[in-house]
Structure formats: structure tokens, C-alpha cells
Amino acid sequence: MALITCRNLCLGYDGREILHDLSFEVNKGDYLCIVGENGSGKSTLMRTILGLQHPLSGQILTGDGLRRGEIGYLPQQTPVQKDFPASVWEVVLSGFEGSCGWRPFYTKAEKRRAEENIRAMGIEQLSGRCYRELSGGQQQRVLLARALCATSKLLFLDEPVSGLDPKVTAEMYDLIENLNHEQGITIIMISHDIGAALRYASHVLHIGDSVFFGTREAYRSSGIGTAYAGGGRAQ
């Protein structure tokens, strides 16, 4: 069974429908990029999959042992979040808060896993640093390590390279690709970077006036993919 199955979803807010009859599935090991024009409903879809809002109609099912609380999430940062006055270690450990319940402490296993995720992101030397003193690229690595503390199955990334320079962007994409290929973590990424979608994704979901869901190769040769990628509309 797929990790996530969306069936006949209708999404919107304030009584306004913005996505109608959307169906797709995400299987273990997939790397799905969600693309489309601004205002097409990407963020609304993300919030609905994460359980932060309800669909107007339709279903979102989880399978293959995945629970809603096991989705690691790397959101777009706000200025307030970038200025968060905590250490890197504290920020990464906070990724376990969803699984702690009422327990007011972190276990040895959780601390060990946080250390492993910090090493995987190459930020061991930053562990004691204040998060708000870091560069944008360093902060994204910290947040990715935090998201990994919430899951070993599925990461949901919302514009993970927004505002980063080209070198740091390439490094971030390499990290994400490694998590997918080497660790088998399923990736769902919202992106305006259509070039990255066509380079890294196994599957593409394009939403907007037209909808496409399929493999990267099928999207590349489709009419909607040709128009979007070839027309200079990646933002």
C-alpha cells in the first residue's frame, strides 16, 4: 500500500474551492516534487496532508505503517523563526516533541539519534552555537536534522532552498538526494525550481489550471510540462 493516497480531494478555504478532484499517491522511496503557479494551492495541499486543515471533500489515507505524526516537516522560514534564540542542539532535539507526549525529557535513544542526524547534515561543529547566528544554509541544515528526528520514513519540504545562493542550493539538493537514495527516505518537496524537479524527482505533481501526476520523464514530455518548463515559468 502507498505511504500516502489522496483520493478525489477538493481543497480550499473560506468557502472557496481552489483544487478539485485531485488524486495521486506517494509510495515508499518516491521523490515527489509539487510544482505549479503561485496561488495554485500547493501550500493548501501541504497543510491538508499534514493534517493542519481539512479537505472540503475526498480522502487522504496513510499506509505501509506510516502514521500522520511520522512525517518530518521542513517549513519555509519566517523572519521570527530565523531569529530563534536557541542552540543548534536544542533546535534539533525539538524534532522529538511530537513523539514525547507528556514526557518532560528526551531519552538516551533520542539524543543519540539527534547526534546522528547532526552528523549526517555535517553540522557537528555548530552544535553549541546559537541558531540565529548561523547563515541561511546552516540554518536549513539544522532544520533538516530536526525534521529527521521526527521520521525515518517521509520528509515534507516546503521550498527548502528559498533564499540560498547557488552553491548552498546545490549542497542542499545533494543532501536531500542522499537521504532519498542512500537512506530510503521518501521525499515530498514543494518547489518553484522546475529545473531541480526535472533533475532530482522521481515523480511530479503539477497543480493549477491543469493538473498532471506521473513520472518525471512523463512530465517532461507532456504538454503541461513542456509549456511550464519550457516557457520560463519556473519561479
Would you summarize the structure shown here?
This protein is of the alpha/beta class and 235 residues long.
With helices defined by DSSP (H or I, 4 residues minimum), what is the helix count?
10
Shape: globular
- Supply the helix-strand structural class: alpha/beta
Q: Give the termini distance in whole angstroms.
A: 34 Å
Share of residues in strands: 15-25%
Description:
The chain has 235 residues and is an alpha/beta fold. It has a domain of 80 residues. The protein is 37% helix and 23% strand. Helix 5 packs antiparallel against helix 6. The two termini are 34 Å apart.
Structural topology:
Blueprint lengths: L3 E10 L2 E11 L4 E5 L6 H8 L7 E6 L8 E4 L4 H4 L5 H6 L3 H4 L7 H13 L15 H14 L4 E5 L7 H16 L4 E5 L3 H7 L2 E4 L5 E4 H6 L1 H8 L5
Parallel strand pairs: 3-7, 3-8, 5-6, 6-7
Antiparallel strand pairs: 1-2, 1-4, 8-9
Which features does this protein show?
10 helices, 37% helix, 235 residues, 23% strand
